[in-house]
Amino acid sequence: MSFPTSPTAPSTVRADPAIAAALLSQAFLWMFAGLLLTAGVAFVVQSNQQVMASVANLWLPIFFGQLAIVWAIGLGIRRMNATLALGLFFVYAATLGFTVAVIVSLYTGESVTAAFLSASAMFGAAGLYGVVTKRSLTGLGGTLMIGIVGLIVASLINVFFASGTLSWIISVIGVVIFTALTAYDTQRIASGSLVAQTGSVEKAAVMGALSLYLDFINLFLFLLRLFGSRR
Fold it and tell me: What is the 3-state secondary structure (H, E, C) of 149-190?
């Protein structure tokens, strides 16, 4: 499971519609580019069984390495330029391709396709809600962050206990959290709060892309765990 950056409360004042639309478009563009990179790397990795075995054996160091990249972007975004932030985002997306390759190899092709289509539909619906709703989702930030930390702790604990029931509960909660987080993050981008947080529109687009990318990836993986059929 990936770990998103700490949510920042969206502004209660909407940005100019034209600026919000441009920012959302740029964020979604980088997000889709990241997803394509992840899929491409996963495809290549799956064709090499030696690499697959290495990733499976080193998943914990890889996970913490990926976590470090995400935190580096989130905490250092104001001090780095947009090009460096975007480069780190693509490095993260590429490394996640190794992890995704191992995970999806455990499931049937039909399950992976179904999870992807379901995640796409839920992500799209939640994102649209975040854009069009007049209700402020600011209050969700702290709750969602606590939920994410709880998911990580529970997932690490379940590595040692391998409880099917706990895994099912984690997956259900994960789907709920990342669906809500998609709406929250989309509203956060559209509100312009990321521009205030990062200091520039370009860096705000990268941060928005990273947040949306993490939302989609986690939603897809939790749905796959919840409904997927193993090989």
Answer: HHHHHHHHHHHHHCCHHHHHHHHHHHHHHHHHHHHHHHHHHH
Please say whether the beta carbons of 115 and 93 come within 8 A: no
Name the strand (E) or helix (H) holding 49: helix 49-57
DSSP 230: B
In a domain, 3, yes or no: no
> Of 184, 194, 181, 197, nearest to 1 (Cα)?
181
The C-alpha atoms of residue 100 and residue 46 are separated, in whole angstroms, by 10
pLDDT of residue 135: 87
Report the number of distinct structural domains present in the chain: 1
pLDDT, residue 159, reads: 77
- The verdict on residue 191 lying in a domain is yes
Q: Does 4 map to a domain?
A: no
Is the sign of the CA dihedral 192, 17, 12, 188 positive or negative? negative
Per-residue pLDDT tens digits for 21-48: 888 999 999 999 999 999 999 999 888 8
CA–CA gap between residue 148 and residue 192 (Å, rounded): 24
DSSP letter, residue 135: S
| C-alpha of 142 from chain center | 17
